């Protein structure tokens, strides 16, 4: 596996430790949050990971209002895709 992918996997819970791959690790961290948010217990996960989501978005320069819109759009996608059945 390429080094940048190894760094992302290894550091997605602490992307600031990913060195030159920090931005990529932050993207993986955001995706990780979303996977938890729309897993088997989404309501509990959303509350538990809200700070992680906000931090990941801020680090990626995603404005708070856009982040909330993104979260709603992704939630709607999962609700209508049948992926959670």
Can you characterise this structure?
By secondary structure, the protein is mainly α. It has one domain. Helices cover 71% and strands 0% of the residues. The protein contains 5 helices and no strands. It has helices spanning 3-11, 22-37, 42-48, 50-59, 64-81. Helix 2 packs antiparallel against helix 4. The protein is globular, with a radius of gyration of 13 Å. The N and C termini lie far apart (32 Å).
Quick structural summary:
This protein has helices spanning 3-11, 22-37, 42-48, 50-59, 64-81. With 85 residues, the chain is mainly α.
Secondary-structure topology with pairs:
Elements lengths: L2 H9 L10 H16 L4 H7 L1 H10 L4 H18 L4
Helix pairs in contact: 1-2, 2-3, 2-4
Features of the shown structure:
5 helices, 85 residues, mainly alpha, 71% helix
What is the CA-based Rg, rounded?
Answer: 13 Å
What's the rounded overall pLDDT mean? 82
**Main beta sheet strand tally, sense and closure:** none
What sequence of helices (H) and strands (E) makes up the elements?
A: HHHHH
Distance between the termini: 32 Å
- The total domain count is 1
- The amount of helix comes to over 70%
Number of helices: 5
Query: Could you give the count of β-strands?
Result: 0
What global shape is seen? globular
Question: What percent strand?
Answer: under 5%
Structural class: mainly alpha
Ranges where pLDDT stays below 50 over 5 or more residues in a row are: none
């Amino acid at each position: 596996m390429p080094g940048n992918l190894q760094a992302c996997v290894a550091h997605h819970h602490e992307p600031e430790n990913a060195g030159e791959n920090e931005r990529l690790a932050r993207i993986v961290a955001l995706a990780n949050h979303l996977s938890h948010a729309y897993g088997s217990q989404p309501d509990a996960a959303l509350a538990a990971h809200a700070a992680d989501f906000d931090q990941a978005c801020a680090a990626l320069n995603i404005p708070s209002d856009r982040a909330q819109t993104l979260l709603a759009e992704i939630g709607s996608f999962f609700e209508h895709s049948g992926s959670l059945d």
